[in-house]
Amino acid sequence: MQNLNGIFIGLFIIVIIIIILSSRNQKSKRLVQANQLVREKRYGEAAEIYFSNKSWEKVAETIIEAPQGTQTIIFHRLQAQLEPNKLKSLFLNLGDNFIRNKQRIFAAIAYNYAQLPWKSSQIYILAGLDHIDDAIQVIDNNPLLIRDREKAIRNLAKFAYENQKIVEAAELLRIIGAEEEASAILVASGKTIDTLPQRRPEQGISSLNQQLHLIIAKMKQGKFQESEAMLNKLNFIINTLKKESSPEVESLLRDYTRLQSSLKNLKRARDAYKINQIMQSQVAYSELLDYTGDYFPAEVFAEAGLSYEQTSPELAREYYLIAAERGVTSQSQTSYRNRAQSLLSSIPAQIAKSQSPKRNLSTSQSTIESVKTQTSQIERCSICKRQIKEGEEIAKCGSCESVGHYSHLAEWVKIKGTCPVCRKKLKLPERRF
Q1: 212: closest CA among 292, 301, 329, 302?
Q2: CATH 1.25.40 fits domain 82-187
Q3: Which of 425, 374, 366 is nearest to 396 (CA)?
Q4: Neighbours of 49 (CB within 10 A)
Q5: Looking at the domain 362-384+391-427, which fold is it?
Q6: Are the C-beta atoms of 394 and 406 separated by less than 8 Å?
Q7: Higher pLDDT, 22 or 84
Q8: CB 408 within 8 A of CB 383
Q9: Which one of 52, 96, 138, 165 has the fewest CB atoms closer than 10 angstroms to its CB?
Q10: Rounded CA separation 156/182 (Å)
């Protein structure tokens, strides 16, 4: 009996060994198949096999070799499988291996996935001029880890110079608009500005597009001084792209101009309010938020609401409600909603005031009065802001008596239906002249 038990146990062990060997053989065959798929550049299929075998290092290697779109898809899947520290360690070790094998580009990609953008950009610089844009892209794509773009690029230029990458250092300085410094280090090294490569239009387009998105993000955070400084540093790229003629370039240049105008209008609105020029402040805020409101945070809408509280509580309330929607904290949202609520009691009184006989109005809807200017009437147009000349035809709001060129104000009323200053509804009269 004991012999039979021994035989059964022995047979059982043999079966287990056969199963294990068979499984290993099958796994080995699948890995060989996956490796062949990588050589055929069928990265997605190869990754599926590596994932099924939990071959994380092979998955990471596949990410590095795959094109950008496929890289992102596979990386997000790997990210869901591993803890952050393990994921970082995986790519860090992979990057070190690539450095030992003198595969700099793969190493730079691996370090970037390891959340080491500074190390990644340095490796790209060491790889030569052809990879400067890759280094810049790493910096631009990691605003949370590299907060000061200009400082980062300047430090990268210093790194390039210290590693005898003189032309690369000069090119980096030129990218941030430091032309004189770029020229100086070239001359000091016995080179000329002609040594620098001619940047391709698509490089400038990509760089400008990324920078404009970063600036908009800064504006939405209320970092207006920083945004303005970043815009000013784009002059070199802007002047270069102005020589190009394409729909994409023209669109980016319009976006650039729109951002510049938005920041100028914000300054104009705030400055006017500080010196109690309420009407001018209201016009500036209205223009600003009507056309480029998406660029601004809650606080700017609240500022607009404050400027309208005394003259148009209904409109002020609308601005506070928008501010509440855009508030980033529950405390600020509640504060703006409470302010909007407090204005409800003021609205009926304001409507009654607008209907009083003093204004000669039978309803809350005002009528534009069309008149000719006289010497004593010369003002600035509420639409174009140009000084109105004597004898020009103007139109005047019956409520707040703001004036503008007839054609400008008439066109505004056709589109908006309200006065650009007091925001009361307006009806366009027949032309008198």
Answers
A1: 292
A2: yes
A3: 366
A4: 21
A5: Herpes Virus-1 (3.30.40)
A6: yes
A7: 84
A8: yes
A9: 52
A10: 13
Q: Say if pTM beats, i.e. exceeds, 0.70.
A: no
Spatial CB neighbours of 45, under 8 Å, sequence gap ≥ 6: 34, 37
> Residue 9: what residue type?
I
One-letter amino acid for residue 263 of the chain: L
Q: Which two tokens stand for residue 287?
A: 């223009």
**CA–CA distance from 183 to each of 56, 171, 194 (Å)?**
47, 10, 10
What is the number of residues in the chain? Answer: 433
| Maximum distance among all Cα pairs of the chain, rounded to whole angstroms | 127
C-alpha to C-alpha distance for 121 and 93, rounded to whole angstroms: 17
- What angle, rounded to 10 degrees, do the helices at 201-220 and 247-274 form? 30
DSSP state of 312: -
Check pLDDT > 60 for residue 432.
no
| Non-local CB neighbours of 186 within 8 Å, separated by 6+ positions | 166, 167, 170, 192, 193, 195, 196
Locate 243 and state its tokens: 């020589």
272-354: CATH architecture:
Alpha Horseshoe (1.25)
